[in-house]
Amino acid sequence: MEWLDRQWVDTVLEALTAFFLVAGSLITFISSFGMVHLRDFYLRMHGPAKATTLGVGLVLFASSLYFILIERTFHIQLILVTIFLLITAPISAHLLAKAALHRKLPSTPDTRGAPGELKPEDTAREPDTPHPEHPGGTAPQRPEQPQ
Amino acid sequence: MIDIALWISFFLIAMAIVLNAWRLLIGPSLPDRIIALDTMYVNSIALIILYTIWLGSRVYFEAALLIAMLGFISTVAVCKYLLRGDIIE
Hints:
heterodimer, A: mainly alpha, elongated, B: mainly alpha, Helix Hairpins
């Protein structure tokens, strides 16, 4: 690692750290601004689900570059946080979208992909599966358990 | 160069957290408030990482990991509560 001690490596690392810091925080700010500015919940999901992960990932990458710059060591915790955020952001976005659809939140008329656009055969209720021993009737009551 | 970038990043992420708090206050429905909290913990991780850069020490990396894990688990728990009316069935 002889080449790490040269002068231009420090300059390049410092420039990359500053660039990734500003880019990541700008993307994070834009996603939070979109979460305030957009009109319905399904539009507002876009910022936290995608842009915030990218912005915080860039800030974490800048931090690991900075610790390479000042200590010449590499810390695994930052990569752990990045991987954890990359894994968990889609899961929480998926669960939030399911909760919003479950509560039937309103969407603006020009939002595409609303549940109202589903075909009737997609949303029609399937008939109940008959009981294998008592077709056509209700299942017998379970006998009382002796105390 | 890093000092100027650090101050710009502090300002932008603090403003992002203020916007999240605004959405948390006015959010018309419950999932809006949950997603505001979700974004707020991710932004607070970024703020902690900026603080470690400013300090030049790595004391707070574990705090960032803990906030990431507990925030995800709390988001999933509240979403399960909204979906099913119960967390552990």
